[in-house]
Amino acid sequence: MQDKLELFSQKLLEWNAIHNLTGAKTPQEVQNNINDSLYPLQFLDSTPQKALDIGTGAGFPGLVLAIAMPQTHWILVEPRKKRASFLHYIKTALKLDNVTVIPSRIEEIAPTKVDLITSRAVMPTKDLLQLAKDFIDKETTILLYKGEEVTRELDDITNYQIKQNGKRRYLFLKGKDVI
Ligand SMILES: C[S@@+](CC[C@H](N)C(=O)[O-])C[C@H]1O[C@@H](n2cnc3c(N)ncnc32)[C@H](O)[C@@H]1O
């Protein structure tokens, strides 16, 4: 896993020097994003079979999680062409057979139920749950990477867990509480 993460980091820095894929411009910034992506893994109680990352951008968190979780099939949804091309390039270069890259918006793709949904810095929680509703069943875990104001977005959702690491808030929801 470490070798793959290093190669991902190196290629991201190379691509990012030409195309503007992400704000992470230095090895340390990329590493910080990798650490952020991986941190909440310790709170997952089982290995999901199928997972969906919405708005993967240059790979955070979905691609990093796919490298760390080879037993899970990851669907990475990213509509911006250069970002999706980069994800596809990394899938091929790192031989990530457990990854499918879909270069579309989440609302444009055929829904399928998944065990885990992740997303970071894409849209407010309620909007995301609405667009992702056909991917969610009662057992689905939803893991959203949020900031300190996370609870303001929750309105009537009362059953959730938040794990904190510095300013990051990892929001865990269960399908049965949001559908
Ligand atoms: C601020 S970037 C965050 C990228 C990455 N998740 C991260 O944290 O580095 C937001 C990403 O969400 C994607 N996005 C925006 N609306 C989307 C939608 N409706 N469905 C899927 N992706 C979307 C954008 O193309 C963009 O790459």
From TrEMBL:
Q: Where is it mostly found?
A: cytoplasm
Which key words tag this protein in UniProt? Answer: Cytoplasm, Methyltransferase, rRNA processing, S-adenosyl-L-methionine, Transferase
Name one cellular component (GO) term.
cytosol
Q: Which GO terms describe its molecular function?
A: rRNA (guanine-N7-)-methyltransferase activity
Claim: Metal-binding is one of the keywords in the record? no
Provide the E.C. number(s) assigned to this enzyme: 2.1.1.-
Q: Would you say which domain of life the source belongs to? A: Bacteria
Q: What is this protein called?
A: Ribosomal RNA small subunit methyltransferase G
Query: From which source organism is this entry?
Result: Nitratiruptor tergarcus DSM 16512
